[in-house]
Design brief:
Its EC number is 5.3.1.6. With 273 residues, this protein is an alpha/beta fold. The chain has two domains: 34-159 and 255-271, Rossmann fold, CATH 3.40.50.1360; 168-251, 2-Layer Sandwich (Alpha-Beta Plaits). It has helices at residues 3-16, 34-49, 64-76, 90-98, 136-143, 177-185, 234-242, and strands at residues 55-58, 84-87, 112-117, 121-122, 128-129, 146-154, 168-172, 194-198, 221-227, 247-250, 252-253, 259-264, 267-271. It has a six-stranded mixed β-sheet with strand order 2-1-3-6-12-13, with helices on both faces. α3 (64-76) links the parallel β1 and β2. α2 (34-49) packs across α3. The longest helix is centred in the N-terminal third of the chain and has 16 residues, at 34-49.
Length: 273
């Protein structure tokens, strides 16, 4: 058969062949950013756990800032009334004042209805590591006296065990701080298992980013305990740190959590002990 005839037959077959159905275009929803996830849990914590007339502890950090923002919004539009709050840092205090949130201190009220804050790590038992922002002492003082302590995180903060994912901060006195660091490193629960690193920076929130020693709102230093393996016994480590002279407090928050609100790509979930 001549090549021209072959080409003609192929062309005719193509003309009568069924055409593939065109697929409708599908819009792919953009995954929420980490800031959007933080905003979701911060807002939900206020919506679900704060009612008019409450005394509220306000945490510190990028996630807690969204809860403070939401509280200010609901006070401004009249949804919430007669709220008074205790901030856990100078930074949170300044944000709350800008939003018109009435503030008080634990000197006036030693019991709070609820405290809301983020966390750097959350284990399956809802024990926490906190203090990446340097406010661990004030956070613990406020949150331990709250009837409910609500933790707000995105799913990246969940871990199988505390330790490797985030350094554990320990607030220590400036007096003889090198001695205290050695004592901390030699504690039975920590010896040979972590590296104590004095935090450097212009403030306690800036981890190891400067030539000066970072100073907390309380005038103290922070030592970050860097683990490369999961902590075998976090409650024991917490107890030994608390009993060490020169240690003001530590970033282990053991057995304090009422609920954890978690934002993930699949939505929001809540875990309770």
């Amino acid at each position: 058969m001549h090549s021209f005839a072959v080409a003609l037959l192929l062309s005719s077959a193509a003309a009568f062949a069924p055409k593939a159905a065109s697929r409708p275009s599908v819009a792919v929803a953009a995954m929420p950013s980490q800031d959007e996830l933080k905003k979701q849990v911060g807002y939900q914590a206020i919506d679900d756990y704060v009612t008019s007339g409450m005394k509220v502890g306000l945490g510190t950090g990028s996630t807690a800032a969204f809860a403070v923002e939401r509280l200010g919004m609901l006070l401004k539009d009249g949804t919430l009334k007669d709220i008074i709050a205790v901030p856990t840092s100078v930074r949170t205090k300044e944000q709350a004042e800008e939003l018109g949130i009435p503030l008080t201190t634990l000197d006036e009220f030693s019991r709070l209805d609820v405290a809301i804050d983020g966390a750097d790590e959350v284990d399956p038992d809802l024990n926490l590591v906190k203090g990446g922002g340097g406010a661990l002492l004030r956070e613990k003082m406020v949150e331990i006296v709250a009837d409910k302590f609500i933790v707000i995180v995105d799913e990246s903060k969940l871990c199988d065990a505390l330790g490797p994912g985030f350094p554990v901060p320990v607030e220590i006195t400036p007096f003889c701080h090198e001695h205290t660091i050695r004592v901390v490193g030699d504690l039975p629960a920590l010896k040979g298992k972590c590296k104590p690193v004095l935090r450097m920076g212009s403030s306690s929130n800036n981890q190891n980013d400067g030539d000066n020693i970072a100073v907390t709102d309380n005038g103290n230093y922070i030592v970050d305990l860097v683990f490369d393996k999961p902590i075998e016994d976090a409650p024991a480590a917490a107890a030994q740190l608390k009993n060490t002279c020169g240690v003001v407090d530590h970033g282990f928050f053991i057995g304090m959590t009422t609920a954890v609100i978690i934002a993930g790509q699949e939505g929001i979930s809540v875990k309770t002990p």
